[in-house]
Amino acid sequence: MKIAHEKVVSIHYTLTDSAGAVLDSSSGSQPLAYLHGFGNIIPGLENALEGKATGDKLSVTVEPGEGYGERDEGLVQAVPRSAFKGVKELAPGMQFQAQGPQGTRLVVVTQVTEDIVTVDANHPLAGQTLHFEVEVSEVRDATSEELEHGHVHGPGGHHHH
Ligand code: ZN
Fold first, then answer.
1. How remote is the CA of residue 146 from the centroid of ligand 1, in Å?
2. Most exposed residue of 10, 132, 139, 144, measured as fewest CB within 10 angstroms of its CB?
C-alpha cells in the first residue's frame, strides 16, 4: 500500500542536525504513527513520504520553512528574576511552562543574571535544517474514528481514556 491522504503511516526515523548530531530517534522504541495529510508531522517530511510504501528507506533534508519555522527573535524575552519566585536555582537550559496570549508555551532559559532572566519561546528546532533517515514500517487505511479525530489511535499514536 502506498502512502497517500488518509493513510496511517508508521515510520522509524533518526533526526540529525547539520553537524550530524542525533537529535531524536525512534530506534529502540515503537515506530511513530501518524495520519498522512493532516499536518501531524512537519510538512517537509510529510511531503517526502507521499507515494512511498512499506519497506522504503529515504533520506530527507528539511529546511526551516518546511520544518519548525525560522527563529523569531521577538520570542526571546527578558523577564525580571522576581517572576521566578519559588525557583531556587535558575540556569540556562531549564524549561518552564509560560502562559501567553496563545496559551501555554514551553520556554527555555538562555541567560541568567542577578536581576534578569532571558527566556526563549522558539521551538528548539526552529531555524535548523533537519536531516531525517526514515524507514516506512507500515501503511494502512485509517479508521473512520481516526479520520474524525485527525490523528492515529493505538500503538505509536494517541491513547484516549
Ligand atoms: Zn482520537
1. 6
2. 144
**The domain defined by 7-68+126-149 carries CATH number 3.10.50.40:** yes
Residue 46, all three cell numbers:
510529510
The helix or strand, by DSSP H or E, that contains position 80, with its residue range, turns out to be strand 76-80
Question: Is 0.85 topped by the overall pTM?
Answer: no
Residue 86 has pLDDT above 80, yes or no: yes
Q: ∠ CA 84-90-92 to the nearest 5 degrees? A: 120
The alpha carbon of 137 and the centre of ligand 1 are apart by a number of angstroms equal to 22
Q: Please, what's the b/e burial string for 122-141 (b: 16 or more CB within 10 A of its CB; e: otherwise)?
A: bbebbebebbbbbbbbbbee
Looking at domain 73-120, which CATH architecture does it have?
Answer: Beta Barrel (2.40)
